[in-house]
Amino acid sequence: MAEERSSELDPVSSRANAARGGLEFFMDSDVFRALQQDVFPAILKTKHPGEPIRVWCVECSTGAKVYSIAIALVEYLEGRSSSRTVRIFGTDINDNAIEKARKGIYTTEDLAGVSQERLKRHFRQRDGEHQVNGDVRELCVFGRHDLTRNPPFSKIDLISCRNLSLHSESGLPRSVWERLHYALRDDGVLLLSGAADPPPPADLFEPSRHHPHFFSKTPKPKFEDPTPHALRKQPLIHEAPRFSKELASFEELRHTNEELQTAKEELQAANQELLMVNDQLQSRNMELALHQVAIQKDKKLIAAILGAAKDLLVVVLDPQGRIQHFNQACQTLTGYSSEEVLGKSSWDLLAPPEDSESVRKAFSEVAGGGEKQIENRWISKDGRDLLIRWSCHAVMSNGVLDSVIATGIDVTAREEASRRARESEITIRALLETAAEAILACDEEGRIVLANQMAERMFGHSHAALVGRNLESLMPERFRARHREYRNAWFRQPRNRAMGTGLELTAIRKDGSEFPVEVSLSFMGNTEGILGVAFVSDISERKQSERTLLQYKDQLQQLTGALILAQEAGNREVARELHDVFSQELAVLGMEISSLREGPGIDREIAKRLFELGKKIGQLAADLHKTSRELHPAILEDLGLQVGMQQECESFQRATGIATEFRTSGMPGAIPPDVSLTLFRVLQESLRNVHKHSQSPRVTVRLEGSPTGIVLRIEDEGDGFELDGALRKGGLGLISMEERVRLVDGKLTVESAPSAGTTVIAFVPLGKMAISGKRGPARKQGAAGKDLQ
């Protein structure tokens, strides 16, 4: 019957193990609080001196529940005078789970329910995981046990079960409860920690006062008289002596049978316990053998590391300070072989005489038991002075010094580099303090961490007041919020650049006065992150000079404009004088010469000379007319800008032979006189430059109107020139054109390059001037004035 029930339960037991595989440590804090406050004290009260505490964890899975109870019991027993033997049995039918429980190794996720204090105290790190410490592990014995088949343990103080209901969907068989009842001491406690576990049979266990999950063992059911009920009611007086004797014999046999059964069960329980202990010992022996192999492997590995370490110095000293081991790195560094140093003290052989006593003293301090970090000098075999940084550790055996292990590194080069770095730091500090600019370094929060003397003088704050101050406090209040946004954006992508390009930057002194600054930004890294570095220049004097220069420039431009206006006014008067006076007088003189030449009796030779003289006077009159037109183009006032420019282009082509094309489109009906004169002068100067410098075979002139203004474009195909060089020479022609255009609020652009021709563009805005008439198609006119459209 038992075999049938067991085989029926095995598949469900497998599912139970799978469900329990993820159990956590200390799953129910209330249960473990009750264990330490009520259950453990009650168990100790019933114990005689030397009597062990026995715990059985049924279905322990991977050991989390076993180790949780063990840790709780260890913590409870600490500080109590009586030493107790503790044995905690963890059983399960899953061999893989038992093997994991024996190893006691868990991931961080497995130990989520363990506090940091318990984690540090009862576990140790191992390859990224955590292993139960030996003091807890030694209390626990793990073994395979089937509660439905194998004999139970005996004399158990605490039985812990969890999720027993998973064994069978129809409930746990009574035989299992009877086994648990047998295993438990009369004053023992049963812990059912599964939330879904049904209560045990009431005739075997009763609820405990400690906690809802705890139960106490009920007394064994009393023996019931097996005599048939009908016989007990009949008076058998005549058979009383014989029946009493048989009844006594029956009682004796029953008691004997019960004692034998109890002895048998106890032997089976003891045998089961011995089997588990033997299994545990075999597992421990295997672990010990593997551990010995690992130790030998580690020894070989350590020896190989010590021999192969090229930079790590390793020296092992005996209790008297004599050298026992001198690795290859030490031999290479000092030039001494291992044979030369073994058995000798380091302070006598390697340390300088003046350091010998301090090295001996340091050894004595370490030999007392402990660790020490020191630096001392060695003298190599060839006389080099070496600086070594040591970490010394005493190896004790049963409280007695076994050896001192010293590991070190040669820091001679590092110390030299540090010395140079300190010297460099002094040099850099000197450069900072002598810099003509204020230098401020701040972190990402805007806190100033570095400031030089110029910054102190510029802002009026002491060095102590600047360091730690927020950078925005050095600028006027109205700029601080926006600057904070700019600073945060810059730290997200730090780069070297000028700050506030195109903006006027302002700083504020301690006394509240504001002054203009120029700032260049840079950055550097340190151990705490990125530092922004600002190089700040006070440009107050430069700004004043710029204002003065602007004033001079304005005055000069005003003077230039006045000179141009005066020149145009003078030209107008001279032109009028030439036209009205000299031209008329030359005309009268020409008429008189003509009259004399045609008079009676004139000599032929004289008439010929008078004819030549008349021609010269006519040419002179034409030249005066041309000069008058150049001095003051009256045609602009009479016929307009377009006709004036057309005639100027025609005249230029006739005079120079350079093909000149003039185009116009979209021009307004009325153009201010000063604008017309300015554009006409630009055309004249450009044409003169084409003739004088470009060697161009042709030139194109375009005059175009738009709603915003008038554009004059003169293009040639000549030699071109280096624009910067021409501007440096300061030719009056370019300057004159630029100033004339500026006077009417226009803009002059010159585009040229060697062998690429020259383009002069003059733009003059007309403001709200209306464009009269509709724009027609552009007209192409030849230099001779013919309509080529």
Average pLDDT confidence is 79
Low-confidence stretches: 1-22, 222-240, 768-789
Proportion of residues in β-strands: 15-25%
Query: Can you tell me the overall shape?
Result: elongated
The number of strands is 27
Q: Main sheet?
A: 7 strands, mixed
Strand order of the largest sheet: 6-2-1-7-8-10-9
**Proportion in helices:** 40-55%
Overall structural class, as computed from helix and strand content, comes to alpha+beta
Compute the number of helices: 24
Oligomer: single chain
Q: Terminal Cα separation, in Å? A: 125 Å
Radius of gyration: 58 Å
Verbal overview:
With 789 residues, the chain is α+β, with helices and mostly antiparallel strands. The chain has 24 helices and 27 strands. Strand 23 and strand 24 (709-716) form a beta hairpin. Helix 21 (641-656) runs parallel beside helix 22. Residues 1-22, 222-240 and 768-789 have low confidence and may be disordered.
List the helices and strands and how they pair.
Layout: H1 2-20, H2 29-45, E1 53-57, H3 64-77, E2 86-92, H4 95-103, E3 105-106, H5 116-122, E4 123-126, E5 129-132, H6 134-137, E6 140-144, E7 156-161, H7 174-183, E8 184-192, E9 205-207, E10 214-217, H8 229-233, H9 240-308, E11 313-317, E12 323-326, H10 328-334, H11 338-341, H12 346-349, H13 356-367, E13 371-379, E14 385-397, E15 400-410, H14 412-434, E16 438-442, E17 448-451, H15 453-459, H16 463-466, H17 477-492, E18 497-498, E19 505-508, E20 514-526, E21 529-538, H18 540-597, H19 604-631, H20 635-638, H21 641-656, E22 659-665, H22 673-694, E23 698-705, E24 709-716, H23 723-729, H24 732-743, E25 747-752, E26 758-765, E27 779-781
Parallel strand pairs: 1-2, 1-7, 2-6, 7-8, 22-23
Antiparallel strand pairs: 3-5, 4-5, 8-10, 9-10, 11-12, 11-15, 13-14, 14-15, 16-17, 16-21, 18-20, 19-20, 20-21, 22-27, 23-24, 24-26, 25-26
Helix pairs in contact: 2-3, 18-19, 21-22, 22-24
